[in-house]
Amino acid sequence: MPISKHPISDEDIQVDAIDEYFPLQSGWALKENQKFGKKGGARMAKKIISLLQAFFHAGNANKSDRYSAHDMLDELNDMANKGELEFEIIPRLETIQNWIARYSSACKREMAEIVLQREEQRH
């Protein structure tokens, strides 16, 4: 005579084994638990961004004063040596290069929109 009223099937044993030995928590694949999108990396300090913008626009105003990413990094390091900045907030060269690419693209897009608005106002 069985101990319980409901006999245990092979399927019940397999489900229990999966729950017991599966290494991930229940619900790990649910959409609300996914962590895609922003990688959560450190952001540049606002002071650094405003300095990079100033370097960038100085180059736009006068082509002979154009700063490369390396020049910008050197300038930031000089400011840190003078005590005007902390070394910890100075980004890496690659970060500055990526910032220049994104900022340049945003500036070009903004200028294109301004030109289109002016053309629309003329007509």
UniProtKB/TrEMBL annotation:
This is Uncharacterized protein.
